[in-house]
Amino acid sequence: MNNQYQLVCDYKHNDELRSSFNELSEKTFGLNFEKWYQDGYWNDSYICYSYRNEDNKIVSNISIHPMDIMMNGEHKKAIQIGTVMTDENHRKQGLARKLMEHIISTYKEDYDLFYLSANETVLDFYPRFGFKLKEETKFILPVSTSIMQVRKGVRQLELSNDADLAVLIDLTENRYPASNTLDTFNDHHLVRFYCTNVFTDSIYYIEKENSIVVFNIEGNTLHLLGVISDREVDLNKLVTYLVSNKIKQIEFHFTPDIDSKQLTLNKTSQNDRFILNLANIELPQDYVFPSLSQG
């Protein structure tokens, strides 16, 4: 590899490098992390591993999220990989490969698995490092008369309001896993990123349950993106706050702890994950990684 590149990591407080990282991310994904940083949510659970060139510009990056995962009722430690990108003028030089090798070597002794989502253009890259493509499940709950007990007490949170923002901060800080089958926790940095940057108009608070629900509606389908609560949640009860006569089904964008007999389960390639299962963990038969913790 050309000596013009230098490995740098965890430089979030370096204004020049962070700005260059944001430029590359904006150009590659249309994402900018500056507001997230300025809001104080970019913490030590999001670490950039990058190569910079002689002009001190970030030209290649792989970021990691050390994650706590509840899987089949057991606590597992994982590394989620994201923001994989190389500037188009610096490709075909093995930069991403060297970064991935360095990351796996650094963390493989202390973590049970690595995982990531990838687009179709790079499906041949990750198997080189031992990753295997795993099919996920789409969970659909048909809305029947048995859950059509519409409850009142849901209000939209306005994050520009200090009191509403405080509710979000408190519940994300103390979030209880929404599923024993598969969920992430201690990941408030990611959940806050999505709530304050992506789904700002989709955040609702159920005061009686002290729970936040993130959802949107498309046609007759309610997409339940996530539940944020400081306690164990009864999803069968929670959805009764959300349904109306117009809603025919609820699609969960996380793994719900609901009797599978109530659900329609479909295998889907839409959200497939690459998984490097170092500890040979038995994965759940049906699962989907939560959308609010996707790196």
Automatic annotation (TrEMBL):
CDD domains: NAT_SF. Residues 6-153 form the N-acetyltransferase domain. GO terms for molecular function: acyltransferase activity, transferring groups other than amino-acyl groups. Pfam families: Acetyltransf_9 (PF13527). Keywords: Acyltransferase, Transferase. This is Acetyltransferase protein.
